[in-house]
Amino acid sequence: MNAAGRGHTAAGASRGGFRAERAADGRYRWQLKAPNGRVVAITQAAFETAGEAERGFDGLRAVAAELTARITHVREGIGWIWVVPGSRGLPEVRSSRAYERYATCQNAFRRFVVLLSKQPTRELPEPAVPLRRGDGR
To answer: What's this model's pTM, rounded to 2 decimal places?
Structure first.
């Protein structure tokens, strides 16, 4: 998290890479930036901690080669977005913007998969386990 408490950035991700940010509701969402600094993907899920967001990202990164996207027309306006469905059909991650052409959207998803697979693995601490009291409660 930075000094202002506004985000948690992986090393070297100031321009590109993974970034978990705290939303207005106090939960965390992650995004993936291209080396040029443009956000290419954002998560739909909200996580309680930055560590949970990182674990969610790493889980997706581990299966990058097997990801498939659903390309759909935006509801309002003109354009196409890609969405990677997660559990129960809810979106796991989606494109950060709409693309004018269907083929451009397909290519953007392919570039996302390559960028995702190139992200370094981070050593994350295990989730905190509550301490047990000595009296068995």
So the answer is: 0.75
